[in-house]
Amino acid sequence: MSKCWLCEYNQEPEAVKLSQFLSDNAAFMGTHQIVRIIHARLKEIDPHGAGHSESDIEEHIKSHVLIPQVKVTVMLRSLIMLMDKLESGLMCTGEDDITIIDAKNVGIYLKLVNEIMQIYKTGETNKLMFADGHISAPQETVGAKKKRLG
Ligand SMILES: [Zn+2]
Q1: Distance, CA 12 to ligand 1 centroid (Å)?
Q2: pTM score over 0.85
Q3: In whole angstroms, what is the distance from residue 121 CA to residue 115 CA?
Q4: 46 CA to centre of ligand 1 in angstroms
Q5: Exposed/middle/buried for 30, CB within 10 Å: 0-12, 13-18, 19+?
Q6: How many domains does the chain have?
Q7: Which member of 15, 38, 136, 138 has the lowest number of beta carbons within 10 Å of its beta carbon?
Q8: Span from the CA of 32 to the centroid of ligand 1 (angstroms)
Q9: 60 C-alpha vs ligand 1 centroid, how far in Å?
Q10: In the predicted model, is pLDDT for residue 130 greater than 80?
Q11: Tens of pLDDT along 24-51?
Q12: From ligand 1's centre to the CA of 72, what distance in Å?
């Protein structure tokens, strides 16, 4: 079976629960943190199953899921990452300590800022905000974590 576990069993109650967990938390938790939690749960419920390694789950989140909350957050994260990278190269110091601004990259940067603002305007902003800090892990996973930590 080469298929991803979460896609293969998407109608099963456990997969439905995990998909719900994913869409509820995509905006509040980093992808790696979500991947770790889902991976731990899948190892518990289907230890010999295939298609649920950490990289399978990451691939699922990045490429298979079309749930808007998840898709928008994944897009938003890569745009912000790109913006951060661009930001560091916008200015440099030339000869005689003159600050040189990279006009072409400033143009791209401003377009990116605009795109990001558009996403915030179209999205459910309360779901995209990190400020309220609401994080809820599935009950089983919390138990599993406690067991793992001893
Ligand atoms: Zn998948």
Answers
A1: 14
A2: no
A3: 10
A4: 16
A5: exposed
A6: 1
A7: 136
A8: 16
A9: 4
A10: no
A11: 898 888 899 999 999 999 999 999 999 9
A12: 17
